[in-house]
Input
Amino acid sequence: MSELDKNLLTECRTLLIDAKQDILNRVQSTKENLNVAVEKGGDEGDQTVRALAESEILSMHDRLRKQLLEIEYALARIENGGFGICEETEEEIEAERLKAIPWTRLSIEGAEIRESLRKRFARG
Output
């Protein structure tokens, strides 16, 4: 592995750990917001607003959970040596892409292939 690769791995690991901490903080915040939103009482309109707010918070929590899993997978790939390899093309993922989205599993080409396949099978 070249020195640039080691530097890239170090940079991506730091980005992933920072993103993980940010998500954990946001999850804690959504839990606190959910506890506030669950208060009972009020008229039908108040209850509807609370139900919508609760639904939005739960949706956001689910998105954060999925992103956290992707970050954990990326950290595991760093440890096992599979980080930066596209799952679709099995070629190296572009360094700039890894810096922008360090948990990505696909190169730009791999993402285009997956999107093309998804569209093809969605029509059928």
In short: The chain has one domain: 3-123. The mean pLDDT is 87.
